[in-house]
Design brief:
Elements: H1 2-33, E1 39-43, H2 50-66, E2 70-74, H3 81-88, E3 96-100, H4 102-110, E4 122-138, H5 146-155, E5 161-164, H6 170-182, E6 187-190, H7 194-203, E7 208-212, H8 213-221, E8 225-230, E9 258-266, H9 271-285, H10 288-293, E10 300-301, H11 306-327
Parallel strand pairs: 1-2, 1-3, 5-6, 5-7
Antiparallel strand pairs: 3-9, 4-7, 4-8, 4-9, 4-10
């Protein structure tokens, strides 16, 4: 009786070990087969913008590399929180990604409550690149150089105004950082979108805008706007912006502001899958097709490891939190 019970007990233990072994082998097989179906990339903006362009252009090359379709899912709303929350609630299997932007780093400082945990719900995949904002004035503006604009802003606090596409946007933050570091008092004029903001800059109703490169490229080329400087710490390497000085070298040391694009997966996504996606995006970002499409964005490609991206975003969160607090910035 004892011998029979002992044998069954041993058999049960052996079956348990076998079950664990089989489960492990199945998991390894699933990882090795990844991807075996389409991958969804959530874009937290409407179709047609810079983020959408980056996701769709990279998606073509990624699809060729991974052998599966890359499906773009536009989920605008809530300053990117709608799309970001959708990713947070997706399975951690590598078949759902989101393209994050500056909004991802500043929302925790602008919003009293997020529908997800910024620190616990996401796995960093890769930073794609950084794009400068461009300091632009009307073609009829008296300011021919950034130094002329800076001198006027310092000499007459409160006289000059700057436009943005809304409270808490990259243009708003760039303007407040400028006020902080330059010791100026530009008056913020928020609009509901970049279009109407730039229309009033062109018309001279507002003096200046720290606008995204994608929004002003054609307007500068057509002579409706004059570009004075870029907001990144180093000059742009893209042909359209290469001749422009930086704000930092033009009299505001330490100034650095801009837009960026990066990819997240849901927290808990296996590292092997994260690394495979990272490698695919890194490869896609170096294709001539991608480089040609993002020239108008002024995008400087800066791909690296998931750890590099995590450190970059954390630094962005801390840096902008200080600016937002000191300037008492709130979203519209």
């Amino acid at each position: 009786m004892f011998s029979c019970h002992f044998t069954l007990k041993r058999l049960g233990a052996g079956m348990g070990t076998l079950f664990v072994l089989i489960s492990t082998l199945v998991s390894f097989a699933a990882l090795a087969a990844y991807p075996d179906r389409p991958i969804k990339v959530i874009v937290p903006f409407s179709p047609g913008g810079g983020t959408d362009l980056v996701a769709r252009t990279l998606g073509v090359a990624m699809s060729e590399d991974l052998g599966q379709p890359i499906v773009i899912d536009n989920k605008p709303g809530g300053s990117t929180m709608v799309g970001t929350d959708a990713l947070a609630k997706s399975p951690a299997d590598g078949y759902s990604l989101v393209v994050a932007t500056l909004a991802h780093a500043v929302n925790p400082s602008l919003k009293s409550k997020l529908p997800y945990s910024q620190d616990k719900d996401f796995a960093p995949v890769i930073l794609v690149g950084v794009s400068p904002n461009v300091v632009v004035v009307s073609a009829d503006s008296p300011y021919k150089t950034f130094q002329e604009f800076l001198s006027e802003a310092k000499a007459n606090p409160g006289k000059l105004s700057y436009a943005s596409q809304g409270g808490g946007t990259s243009a708003h933050l760039a303007g407040e950082l400028f006020n902080s570091l330059a010791g100026t008092k530009l008056t913020h004029v928020p609009y509901k979108g970049a279009g109407p903001a730039l229309t009033d800059v062109i018309g001279g109703q507002v003096d200046v805008m720290f606008a995204t490169a994608s929004a002003v490229g054609s307007l500068v080329d057509s002579g409706k706007l004059r570009a004075l400087a870029v907001t990144t710490p180093t000059r742009s390497t893209t042909p359209q912006l290469a001749k422009l000085p930086t704000v930092a070298e033009s009299g505001v040391p330490g100034y650095s502001a801009g837009s960026w694009y990066g990819y997240y997966a849901p927290a808990g996504t296996p590292p092997s899958i994260i690394n495979k996606i990272n490698a695919s995006i890194k490869k896609a970002a170096q294709t001539q097709a991608f480089k040609s499409r993002v020239e108008s964005e002024g995008l400087m490609i800066k791909t690296g490891s998931p750890e590099d991206f995590a450190k970059f975003v954390k630094a962005e969160e801390l840096r902008w939190r200080t600016v937002i607090k000191n300037a008492n910035i709130t979203p519209d």
